[in-house]
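User: My instructor asked us to take a sequence, write out its structure as C-alpha cells, and then describe one feature of it. I'm not sure where to start. Here is the sequence I was given:
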Amino acid sequence: MPSAKIPRRSTDTDMTPFVDIAFLILSFFIMATKFKPPEPVEITTPGSVLSQKLPENNAVMITIDSSNKVYFTVLSDRDPSKYDAIIQGLNASQNLSLSPSEMANFRKTFLVGVDFANLKQLLATDFRDQAKIKQPGIPVADTLNNQLVWWIKEAKAAFAGEKLNYLIKGDGLSKYPTFAAVVYALKKNEEFKYNLVTSLDDVPPGTELYKSEQIKK
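Assistant: Let's start with the prediction itself. The C-alpha cells for your sequence are:
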C-alpha cells in the first residue's frame, strides 16, 4: 500500500500573544504596586540586630530628627476615616477652626511637625507642596504644653476597640530629653508599650542569636 504523505508544517511558534500577555501582567503590577512615599525628614536611625516587620496599618509613628524636632504620622491605609476622626477630635478640643477642606487634606498629609497655632496653615497647603514648608516640630519639651499628648489621645480614640501600634523613629543624633518627652506623652495616655524603629545590622558572630540564625539556615 502506498504510504500517506503527511504535509510538513512549520515548527515556528507565533510569540505575539505571549508578548501581549507579558505586557498585560507588567502593566498590572505597575498599577497595583504601592510605592513608599519619600520621607520629608531625613532620619539616620541607630543600628539593631533584631528584625521585625513594621506594621503598615493601625499604627502611629513618632519621628525625632537630628535637631530634636518631633513629628507625628498616622498609618491607616485600610480605613482612611481614622484620619478624619483624629483631626476632627483635635479641631474640637483645641478650637482650631479648621475648614472641611483643610481637615480632608489631613488624609494626604504624611507628616505633621507644627504646633496647633500653625496647623491650619499646614493643612491649607496642598499635600504635594507641604515638603517645602519648614516644620519646627510638635512642642514636647514643656510638660504643661506637650502637644503630642493630644495627638496620641485623639489617635487612641479614633482606633478605639482596635490594637494601635506605637512606633518611635529617632535619629541617632537626637537627645535623650526629647525621647523622654515622647515617652511621657505616651504614658499620659496610659500607653506603655512602643516599638523603636532601627536600621538592621549584621548579627555579631559567636553570639547566641548568631548561632540560632545559623541553625535555621
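For the description part of your assignment, you could build on this observation: The chain has a mean pLDDT of 81. Try explaining in your own words what that tells you about the chain.
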